[in-house]
Design goal:
Elements (H helix, E strand, L loop, with lengths): L1 H9 L12 H14 L2 H7 L2 H11 L4 H10 L7 H8 L2 E12 L3 E12 L4 H7 L3 E12 L2 E4 L9
Antiparallel strand pairs: 1-2, 2-3, 3-4
Amino acid sequence: MLLVVLLLIGAFVWPGFLGGGSPEDVAQDYLDASADGDYEEVCDLASEKSLEEDFEEYDVDNCGDYFDALEEDSDSGFDRDELEQLQEDFDVSHELGDVDEKEETAVVSFTQTVEYTGDDESIAEAFGDSEESEGEVHLVKEDGDWKVDLDKTTDAF
């Protein structure tokens, strides 16, 4: 369920391609996928430990099956179409900052700007022109590839 919450927040807040590459590359891919609403890619970039509880809850072993199960579960609150429509009303940009890389872990800081471009006045009023915030993508090495630790990664919203 943690993954569902993180993905729902990330749908319009977090600005990820599949593991590998440098911590910066994976962080950039993760933030891009989050901003684009590419939930399966966000999931594919996540560490096994980050996904373990959610996969067990839905008795699945991969991201595609996980999202199929979420869409079938009316209690999950996951509605891909609704999230995509909402996401269309936000422009998200981000810039990577410092990287603290160790042998098996890394932290990539980022600054993100979110601008509401839709026509819902209550959302526009709450957002103002744009909002800038900072966050960190925490990564761990799994089988030689960098993966996002969703349990430690902070949203920028």
